[in-house]
Design a protein that fits this description.
Shape: globular
Radius of gyration: 21 Å
CATH architecture of the largest domain: Alpha-Beta Complex
Distance between the termini: 55 Å
Largest sheet: 8 strands, mixed
CATH class of the largest domain: Alpha Beta
CATH topology of the largest domain: Spore Coat Polysaccharide Biosynthesis Protein SpsA, Chain A
Helix content: 40-55%
Strand order of the largest sheet: 3-2-1-4-7-6-8-5
Number of domains: 2
Number of strands: 8
Number of helices: 11
CATH superfamily of the largest domain: Spore Coat Polysaccharide Biosynthesis Protein SpsA, Chain A
Strand content: 15-25%
């Protein structure tokens, strides 16, 4: 597929000069050639800027920008800014250390147009080095190409994907941004949960179309977090996503997010740390769950913080 509607590939980057060339070469090698690639540098301190200026001069389809100083630092700000600069009919976010297979765009655009979908989701394989030493997939689940992807399955993590896998129509993405309050893992989870709740129609494409690089400073590397940090991070993502969907989701899904938040907050308190948005959360638990559950949650956190007890109170919130 040599011609077609313009695809905007949007890449945030920070200190990835040693990986960027391979990533951008894989984009140049696409069989679908009607694309622009917008790269937003989050004020890198390596050779990223010089490298991108050279690439931009050689191929004008690459467009290089730096994150404006008035925007919050982080990949989500860069993605939102890149989207505002893009012109494509289709949008494909991508990471600056991953690799597209040559048919990536061709297969995704073709499937989306054939079935008149709002979005499609390909598949990825993890790799460690340039020789493509594969180590599984980012997500393992039963991918059914014929079923429409739904928000509840995604939110409750029965299905999932990385940002690279998604290609969507621009008109379905105009009214949603990446949450800049989320700085690490969970940004795409939050974004796509909110996106799916808008009712857009999409399906899986069961082809490995990306190679997802695993290395020491990958944000999703579990070795970067101890248990307390993990609990705090998960509670933050659950709570922020709850806030983002409380006006669009069914009650059952809102309660599901609040339960996840409360459980991980209890674990945080058991390590003598104040849970994320503890006081604010009590209001929402009372409003969207029940006043009794809010009291039980408050008591469980106090007991956990003081003497690492109180799980019996937390169990009450499941009733």
């Amino acid at each position: 597929m040599m011609k077609g509607k313009l695809v905007s590939i949007i890449i945030p980057t920070y200190n990835r000069g040693h990986f960027l060339v391979e990533t951008l070469n894989s984009i140049q090698d696409q069989t679908y050639q009607n694309w622009e690639c917008i790269i937003i540098d989050d004020h890198s301190e390596d050779n990223t800027q010089d490298l991108l200026m050279d690439i931009e001069e050689q191929d004008p389809r690459f467009r290089f920008f730096r994150r404006p100083n008035n925007l919050v630092k982080g990949a989500n700000s860069c993605r939102n800014y890149g989207f505002s600069l893009s012109k494509g009919y289709y949008i494909n976010w991508f990471d600056s250390d991953d690799i597209m297979v040559p048919e990536h765009l061709e297969l995704l655009v073709g499937r989306l147009e054939e079935e008149n979908l709002d979005f499609v989701v390909g598949d990825s394989a993890n790799f460690i080095n340039l020789e493509k030493s594969f180590s599984g997939k980012p997500y393992q689940f039963n991918r059914c190409e014929d079923e429409i992807i739904n928000a509840t399955d995604f939110a409750q993590q029965r299905i999932g994907w990385i940002t690279d896998d998604f290609l969507g129509r621009r008109n379905s993405l105009n009214n949603i941004n990446f949450n800049t309050n989320i700085q690490t893992d969970g940004d795409e989870y939050n974004f796509f949960t909110r996106y799916l709740l808008e009712g857009y129609k999409g399906k899986f494409v069961n082809e490995i179309l990306n190679y997802h690089r695993i290395h020491g400073d990958t944000l999703s590397n579990p070795k970067l977090y101890n248990s307390i940090q993990t609990y705090f991070k998960v509670s933050q993502i659950k709570y922020l996503t709850f806030l983002d969907i409380k006006n669009t989701a069914e009650k059952e899904l809102k309660i599901w997010f609040l339960r996840g938040y409360m459980l991980n907050s209890f674990r945080v308190a058991g390590n003598r740390k104040i849970p994320y948005k503890f006081i604010d959360s009590i209001f929402h638990i009372s409003k969207y769950y029940s006043f009794k559950n809010a009291l039980a949650y408050f008591g469980s956190i106090v007991c956990a913080f003081i003497c690492n007890r109180g799980y019996f109170l937390l169990k009450y919130t499941r009733n």
